[in-house]
Amino acid sequence: MESPVPGRPARRVRGAGRGNGPPETVAPRPGPTPFLPCSYGFRPGRRAHDAVAEIRYLATRPRSYEWVVEGDIKACFDEIDHTALMGRVRGRIADKRLLGLVKAFLKSGILGEDRQLRETNAGTPQGSILSPLLSNIALSVLDEYVAQRPGGPSTGRVEKARRLRRGLPNFKLVRYADDWCLMIKGGRSDAEALRDEIAGVLATMGLRLSQAKTLITHIDEGMDFLGWRIQRHRKRGTTRHYIYTYPAKKSLKAVMAKVKTLCRQVEVNQPLDDLIRRLNQAVRGWCAYFRPGVSSATFAYLSHYLWQTVWRWLRRKHRRTTWKELRRRYCDGGWWPHGQRELFDPEKLSTTRYLYRGANIPTPWPAT
Fold it and tell me: pTM of the predicted model, to two decimals?
């Protein structure tokens, strides 16, 4: 029996085939499309760097998607409408037992600090392995709307050029979980109109845009996305302008606060190795994330702050010891502290350029 929909088995009607005629088949309901390429969060083979590289690629000439709607959804994981979400899940899954498990998961409730179980009538429980998938399913309504709209990713090259001649915008979406940016090739008024449309689309899933945090910016003004600052600058010594990606100030302040907190948590009666071990774990991971970017100046600043903070810790540990003695004991006569292990120096870490993969990112679904 052949299925009328490629890739899906045909469904036999109960009682069909008992007479002389051929058995009847009913095609499965066409459900929503799989996750689209604009979605990067919680998907195999994709990462935050791919989303940042996509924004940089779109903003670079000759593509010139220069206006950006920086979206911020209020309490995304807490306000997803269960009815709308289950409707999208049923579009892909027909097994009632599995649907019952998903619904039971959503309605399982939250155990508070006061040991009281509270009902959950909206949202997905955070911290579970299923919540990222369900949030992606809910937010895919935004991906599909942008993909199907005229001027979106499905619009051909000739039609896009025709739209620009008519003063109509073209746009593309880049989304990582509930963080998303709409890249627009047009004007500010086009960005404002699209922002209002997206607010209506998200409302169908019970979600709201934050009016205060949803910003419309030009790429020359810069934007923060997934911890990165993405902005077009003039290259030093030239008249050419390029898109640069480097750690945002908020991200730098966060890791500096982490360093300061660790130096307070580790008591001065503990050996220096305990402090260095904990600092290296925090700083190495942060630098590894921001290594594929223009991060050398930020790493140098962080290196100086790290050195300064550790030295203050050593001065508290040995209040009556001279600088010369501390350098001999902890730096072998130099200035960079170490014990049995060496304190990680961000300034010595070389930066790289992340390879833009675009359509080369593998996807588990065949192209349709």
Answer: 0.85
